[in-house]
């Protein structure tokens, strides 16, 4: 059965859709890996821990709790946004989208899979890069109309692109 990698910028404890999807794919016989973050408060961490005691699929949590690391990621994000504005190159838009997009991309690039599934826009550049690297397919779980999250003004052009 194919290996499926689900990527989300959130913790699994506040992302039941990812957990349900990973459980269903695992029950169907697929090898499943989930790449998520670890960055929110104690109430979410407790839910993560409870889920980790019962899940049977692989979970990689990217630890983003360090304020120093977060500030460095944020500086990198802003630099990429400015580089995108100056050059118009899409690779800068990808890593400039959110501060956690770059670590999600690194983790996805280190995970070989047959299919990558992105949850939320910040995960889409990560799964697209990994799919290109491994010659795999990727999909986007479009549960919401995220393009409508931002006002239709020039100041939000980068986010909408």
Number of domains: 1
Judged by helices, strands and strand pairing, the structural class is: alpha/beta
Please tally the β strands and state the result: 5
Return Rg in Å: 16 Å
Q: What share of the residues lie within helices?
A: 40-55%
Report the sheet with the most strands, covering strand number, pairing sense and barrel closure.
5 strands, parallel
Low-confidence stretches: none
Q: Say what the CATH topology is.
A: Rossmann fold
What portion of the residues fall into strands of 2 or more residues? 15-25%
Order of helices and strands: EHEHEHHHEHEH
Biggest sheet strand line-up? 3-2-1-4-5
Arithmetic mean pLDDT: 85
The CATH class designation is Alpha Beta
**What is the CATH architecture term?**
3-Layer(aba) Sandwich
Helical region count? 7
Shape field = globular
The separation of the N and C termini measures: 35 Å
Provide an overview of this structure.
The structure is a single chain. The chain has 161 residues and is of the alpha/beta class. It has one domain: Rossmann fold (3-Layer(aba) Sandwich). Helix content is 48%, strand content 18%. The chain contains seven helices and five strands. Strands 3-2-1-4-5 form a five-stranded parallel β-sheet, with helices on both faces. Helix 5 packs parallel to helix 6 (124-134). The longest helix has 21 residues, at 67-87. The protein is globular, with a radius of gyration of 16 Å.
Give a brief outline of the structure:
By secondary structure, this protein is of the alpha/beta class. The protein has seven helices and five strands.
């Amino acid at each position: 059965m194919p290996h499926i990698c689900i990527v989300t910028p959130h913790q699994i404890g506040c992302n039941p859709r990812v957990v349900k999807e990973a459980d269903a794919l695992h029950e169907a016989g697929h090898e499943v890996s989930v790449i998520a973050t670890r960055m929110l408060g104690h109430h979410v961490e407790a839910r993560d821990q409870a889920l980790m005691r019962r899940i049977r699929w692989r979970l990689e949590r990217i630890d983003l709790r360090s304020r120093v690391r977060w500030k460095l990621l944020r500086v990198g994000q802003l630099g990429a946004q400015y580089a995108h504005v100056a050059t118009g190159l899409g690779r800068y838009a990808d890593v400039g989208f959110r501060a956690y997009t770059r670590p999600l991309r690194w983790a996805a690039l280190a995970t070989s899979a047959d299919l990558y599934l992105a949850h939320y826009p910040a995960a889409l550049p990560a799964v697209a890069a990994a799919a290109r690297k491994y010659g795999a397919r990727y999909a986007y779980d479009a549960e919401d109309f995220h393009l409508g999250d931002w006002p239709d003004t020039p100041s939000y052009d980068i986010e909408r692109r």
